[in-house]
Design brief:
By secondary structure, the protein is mainly β. It is built from six helices and 19 strands. The strands form four sheets. Strands 1, 14, 15, 16, 17, 18 and 19 form a seven-stranded antiparallel β-sheet that branches. It has a seven-stranded antiparallel β-sheet with strand order 2-3-4-11-6-9-13. The chain has a three-stranded antiparallel β-sheet with strand order 8-7-10. Bound molecules: zinc ion (ZN). The site of zinc ion has 4 residues, from loops.
Length: 320
Amino acid sequence: MGTKHNHELIFMEPVLQKRIWGGSRLKNEWGYDSEQDKELGECWAVSCNEQTDSRVTEGEYRGKHLSQLWREEPELFGREADGTEFPLLIKIIDAKENLSVQVHPDDTYAEEHEHSKGKRECWYILDCPPNAELIVGTHAKDRDELKRMIEEKKWDDLLNRIPVKKGDFIQIDPGTIHAITAGVELLEVQQNSDVTYRIYDYDRLQNGTPRQLQLQQGMDVINVSDEISEESVIHPKSKDNILQRLISTCDYLVWTIRVNGVASVGRIANSFLIGSVLEGSGKCNGQLLSKGMHFIVPHDYSLDRIEGNLRINFAAPVYS
Ligand code: ZN
């Protein structure tokens, strides 16, 4: 089928966000634009919310914002104009220091208490130090033990750590305590929500005062029976030029592909996709791709010919 709209990828302009734990790689290694060169924690690569509204960098929609496309060109996204919010947020995170230990609510809790969507997220590890570990889940047997260990600040005993390597992939469900640790750089695909309950911030100060914790809400939503272990980490092992699905949840699907030569993957979802070029460079149906680019693949667009030497991750929302 295909309408006049659906014949090109729509590239988005990344926006950097300052964070006290951020580094300088987003500017120096990814080439993203910023006036400063430290504490650059997050690249909001494809974003459509009150904080950042991604802008199209080239082509037919150049200069338009994602919110405008979402509202005015629903067919690009394979949907009706139904007043719902853009579903996903794509970030690259550069943690020079540890991020706070945190947890996110699910949709039900967030809608009731925050008038927001909940936050499910997942991580594709782009870089990390040797022997890196992420904090995912806890060792608490039940809610009473969790409460006691938090009150007594027994963080080392409480927090579960999992080893990770470059190229690993991890799903973080709402209710699972988690933290990105110093030195890790990752691609995050998440629900379009910013509701975070901070449990522990290493007693750090920001402008002389500790950042606020949200222990009560955190206790409400922490899932103590989550079974997170080393087996929860996916080690993608696909051959070159073969698309590999990393995860399928009720909110999104994520795939990765390493292209070396030519790959043809066609259409891989019934909605639109968001593509992120994580390594290398090449072309997709003639359009140039290089590391650090993020783009919308319109509904009905077919990824017929991806060529070059590059890795791309794709995310698709699941429409409810
Ligand atoms: Zn999080």
